[in-house]
Specification:
With 461 residues, the protein is an alpha/beta fold. It contains 16 helices and 11 strands. The radius of gyration is 32 Å and the shape is elongated. The termini are far apart.
Amino acid sequence: MPKRAALYIRVSSEEQARHGLSLGEQRADLLNYAKEHGYSVVGIYADEGVSARKAMSRRKELQRMLADVEAGCIDIIIIKCLDRWFRNVADFYKVKERLDACGVDWVCSREDYNTTTPNGILMLNLKLSIAQHESDQTGERIRYVFEGKRARRQFVTGLIPLGLKVADGYFARDDKTAPIVECAFNHILNGGSTRSLVQVLYDKFGHKITKAGLFDLLRNRSYIGEVYGIPDYMFSLIPHDVFFRVQEILSRNTKYTRSGRIYLFSGLLRCPDCGRNLAAYRGRRVNSDGERRFQYQCGYRVNRSMPGCHFARGMYEDKIEQYLLDNIQSLIREHIITMESFCGQQGRERPESKIDALKAKLSRLEDIYIAGLMDKDKYTKTYKEITQEISELSTLVARSLSIPSALREVADDRDFRSTYESLTRENKQRFWKSIIASITFDDTPDTRGKGAYIPYRVTFL
C-alpha cells in the first residue's frame, strides 16, 4: 500500500515579488516528486502570502496539516526545501517532535537531509541557522526602512482609513470619501444618533457601514493626525475639539427605546445619590393635553439591584425643560467667561508651549541618533516617552481649552425660545445633547414637594 503523502507549500508576498516564486510552481514540483516515488497524495496544504518569520499559530494551513497528522491521515510530508517549512530552529524541533510521536516522516524534493547520522543532523542545524539568520537580517532591513519612513512621516503599512489616501508615499485627503467622515462626525456632534447615522450615510453617499464599523470610524485617532501611536504624524482631517466632543457623546451610550418615544434628556441626568444615569419612562400623570408626562428615575433604585441608592423620586421632563429654557443662556455665558478666564491664567504654562518644546526635543533626539551618538535601545525608549507625553498634552488641549461655536450661538440668540419651539421633538433632543454633557442636582428637603425649586447644574461639552 503506497504511503499517504501531504504536500506543504508556502510562499510569502515578498518572495513572490523578488524571486517570482509561486504556489503553482511548488505544487507541480511536489506532485511530480510524489508520482515518481509512488506516493498517494491525500492533501495539499498551501500558506500563501505568509512569511516563515510568523508564528506557527498564524499559519493556518500548517496547523490544519498537523491536525491531520495527529488524526492519523498522513504518513509522509513533502516540501520543496527546508526554508519553505521553517526558518527557525526552535519551531522546527517543536514540529519534528509531534511528527515523531505520530511516526510521520518528512522529505524535501530539492534537498537531501540524512537525520540518522550526527553529520546529517549538524548539516540540518546549520541550514536552519543560516535560514534564521537570513530571516533576521531581512527583518532588520525592513525595520530600518520603516523607521526611516516614520521619521519622514510617510505611510508605512496597514489599512488606510476612510477619507484618506496615499499619494507619493504620504497620507493625503481623499476628496471622494472625506465628506463621508466629516458628515459622520458632524451628525453626532449635532445630537444625532449612531442608529440614524447609518441610514444618513447610505441615503446621502450610498455608503454602507455597520454600526460596529461606525464606532470604529468615529474613534479612529488617525483623523486627528495620530498614526502608529505618534501624535501629529500627519494633518488632522477632523479638528481636535470636534473629535473629543464626539468621544464624550459616544461614551454616554444612550440606548434606542423600543417604544419609539423620544426622551429629551435621556443619558444626561445623573442620580444625586449613586451617580448613575437616570432612566427615562412614561409617567402615570398626564398633562393638559391628556398625554403622559415623561419622567426620569434611578433604574438601580427601581430594580432594587443597588440597595445603597436611596433616591426614589421621579423627575418630570417638562419641569427640567422649563428650567433650562429659563436659564440656559445665562448658564452658557457664565461658562464662557469661566473658560476664557482659565485660558488667560494659563499664560506661558499652557500645554501648547510645552508641546512645541517637546517636538523640538524630539527633533534633536533624531539628530543625535542619526549621528551615532546614542544607541538604538536608549533612542527607542526616549522616543516613546516623548511621543506619549505629546499625545497626552494634545488631548488635554483639545478637551479643556476650546469653547464650541454652538454655545456662543445659543448665548447670542435673542429669540432663542422661539427658535427652540420651532424644532421637532427629535431635533430638540439633538440640540440638548449637542451642548450638554451632564445635568446634576441635589436631593434635599428644600427641593422636595410640590412646587419646590430645583437648581440644576449643567456641565457643557
